[in-house]
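dumping this here before i forget
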Amino acid sequence: MLQKIFATGALLFTSVMAFSQIAAVTPTVKPDEVTSGSSNTSAVPPPVEKKPLLVISGSADAYYRYDFDKQPGNIRTSFTGTHNEFALGMASVKFEHNSGKVGAVLDIGFGQRAKDFAYTDDGITQAVKQLYITYTAKDWLKFTAGTWATHVGYELLDPQANRNYSMSYLFTNGPFSHTGLKADLTKGKHGVMVGVSNPTDYRKPPSGFINKKFFIAQYSYAASDNVKLYVNYVGGKNPDTSKGSQFDAVVTATINSKFGFGVNGTYSTVKPWDGVKNIDANEWYGAAVYLNADPLPWLGLTLRSEYFSDKDGVKGIGSSLFANTLSANFKVDGFILIPEFRIENAKDEIYLKSSGAPKKTAGSFILAAVYKF
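structure:
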């Protein structure tokens, strides 16, 4: 286990060092010229722009998916488990209010994507993606209490925040959200987050099970405006008495206005409960590389290449696989049209042909429409 963690750390450290010298381009801003009717009259400073107390944003998305083997369950990632269907994704609205030191966020969503995200809830509370209050005690210290999206991983729930429409195995099997209390500290290029939360993805711990708290943490480092590193952790005792821990790291880099990339690596262990004690750990791990190109203002291309290993069957796959996803983003104002091809190859025959016979490969096509405001 230590060898895998050290190897992943070495890869990410090398990536940061290699690209930390990328120069951030800062445009020169010229001060406004003030014309005075008299040489004795002082220049009038421009009025201070007031930020709105309430900010509203949101999105809506829908998609069509075709599985090449006519098996909707072949590709086992979040939110797009359909075949030859038009489907609704999520209608989402986010309200943000800030009165200075204190702020609040209500982020709600309706649709299958929102329902799958809040899978531990029932009824109307499944519409709550995020609900939290913040208090900025100092310019370097902020507290957050409530429910918020996880810090772990590269991808996000909202489709407009990702360049691929389908999700990775790392996102699907990592945490979705946390409910608890956290503190964010910043100093120069460095940032630290520490917090205590309910078990992963639980807004309310289930009754009849143990109720232990999880520890969450993040260290961030901005090597420059264009290169950033995040090291993440989440761990604790699950309601079923198993012990889980996950180490995760993300590197993002912008080479220039047309090219950039991201790297995400994760390693997780689960120690099952045998009725007396937690026994030896089972593991799952993976890594993904995101290559982003924007040759034209209205066109973006992203290739996601992912390796995922669940040989111990912790996540129900019992094998390892490579998944490659190529997505185009055609953009007009707030509208994004995303055609996407995805091909997967597994070590074992974990997929099904249309006849029901097992096979080692799977593929699909998606056409998605996303609108953000």
